[in-house]
Amino acid sequence: MRNIPGPWKRTAAGAGLLSAEGVVAPTIFAEMSALAARTGAINLGQGFPDEDGPAQVLEAARDAIAHGVNQYPPGRGIQDLRQAIAEHQQRFYSLHLDPDRDVIVTAGATEAIAATLLALLDGPEDEVVVFEPYYDEYAACVALAGATMRTVPLRWPDFQPDLERLADAVTDRTRIILVNDPHNPTGAVFSREVLDEVVRLAHLHDAIIVTDEVYEHLTFGVPHVPISTLPSAWERTLTISSGGKTFSTTGWKIGWVSGPAELVDAVLTVKQFLTYVNGAPFQPAIATGLRLGRDFFDGIAETLRHKRDVLVEGLRAAGFGVSVPDGSYFVVADAAGIGATDAAEFCRALPDRAGVVAIPLTAFATPERRADYATLVRFAACKRVEVLEEAASRLAALG
């Protein structure tokens, strides 16, 4: 095997892709899922459901396969899905999109994020501001683009950013402000004050706003407000979402980017050389899902709220401190009350001690800030209620 050229190897190491020995480093999710498999523990680490999505959506995929939708779809995605995305944005957020110019379909939100950052960043002079802790792909893609990441900390227990620290982080070198709302890993839904400040700073410093909104339909008692709907935000905002979380089809990897045509076209220039296209028979199925009635969307949020409450109650009974999330799949708990001092060590021992897998919040933070999250642990609430109840019972034994 040829050696990796020096600059690429350095970039990969900076992104956390290589260990100090130059070996590909597994993600914390892979490590914890392997622990779950080895020990037979309940996996509340990785955020995927253990139930299938709506029958209409699954049937639409089977029907597409049976009727020959099995070859390359158009590069921008099949027209009906792009139309359904535009209809969805109009129905829920009163945004008017041209499905032929303002939308492209991607291999999940993961590719959408990668293509967007690679398209819009141009070396170390460009900075990306993210909220920390952050979804681990952000740091990897910023590093692969050769750019610089600056972070704004989110603090226990509400995980809302300090606006002065946000203003300090955004400068004339900021190319992108990357906003994940509802937020993974904390479950925070950012306040309107925070969103307005993001827009103000983007205008002040001529930055582009990129929003990761994959949990947009999974909020509990608070509305999801896309930044692109705010005054003067549309023209500088790219919105990313996907069908995986909404329709419990995470393995299908159908996502999208929407926004002003010139920005979407820039993303397409990179996306076409990543996966090119993907998931032909799943695209019409996700279009079917996006056209489901409001009762479906209200129902999935209410179902997940109940699951959140079951997990929160169980964690509190076990002695954890808990930050009650307003959205997403996740609950963050403080294990200090049950003797933990290092979240990573705690999570590595937890499968053998209690038969449950979780993820340390330090996995979502830069080394400089990991001490701020030293005893915090993320649990996934997107499992069947009986699974969450069993996990809570096992965790109670720790106390």
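Above is the first protein from milestone M3; the second protein from the same milestone is given next.
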Amino acid sequence: MLLLAVVQTSVGTAAVPTPEDNALMVRGFTPEPLVADQVERNLIRPFKGNSGKLVAGEHRKFGFEIELAGSGALGVAPAWGPALRACGFAETVTVGEKVEYMPVSEGEPVLTLYGYVDGTLFQMVDAKGTVSFDLTPKGIPVLKFEFLGAYVPPSEVAMPGNVDYSKFVQPLVVGKRNTPTLEIFGHAGCTSAFTVDWANELNWREMINCAGARSPDRKPSGSITMEFPKVTDKDWTEIIRKGETGPLSIVHGVNPGNIVELQMPNIQPAPYTLTDDSGVAMMQMPFSINPALGDDELTIIVR
């Protein structure tokens, strides 16, 4: 398998990705070559049996994961930047210092993706996506993407050569040494699981004179599993009961150029559950990621 992705100059105009410049180093690539509704014909006849179906609203879906790491150099965008931008983030590069990704509510780019599977090429045009982050201790941190886009008939082609993955940096396993900061409401609890779901709403709209992937809203959320603290240290029950909001930040990576930071200034925790982990009480707490002034729920800093 091979996956290529390139940002289009405009909606409706397919781009042509190349293996030298646009190869994505992915894992868990799960293409759905044809996603569509099947409309029953419901014919009336003097005998029993199916009357057949017609396909409507055909499109395509790709799912894949990319390891979370920086670019290896300060102020250089990571290789997963184009995919993140198509999930509703604006990219700002500060040369020699950092790259920031901030959410937008309109104007995000779309992608052309080429998925090669055993000699068959599945193209997807005008693709929009959503992303989630998984930073589980003793595991590789990943971005999990899902994209919807326009259907293009498959074709048989030779697998491209000269595939260049040099822009992808080897990730660091999540843990105390490589993930030096995780604070929620100023509390740094021992954490066994952490996820964030950007939760873009994705759907395919099929109309006369109009068809395409749409992302009309987002409802980002997350979940954290950490040691249950004493009430005198942090009273999560009262925080949730009062509907309080506060900041959450996590920093993964220790070397300049390979540090990724997620900042969420306005999360709202929800009721938690308690479990036992080797005799230690753990709390699994979901939270919503809310805007303050708008388009500021989550900032991703690569530095």
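Note on the second protein: The mean pLDDT is 97.
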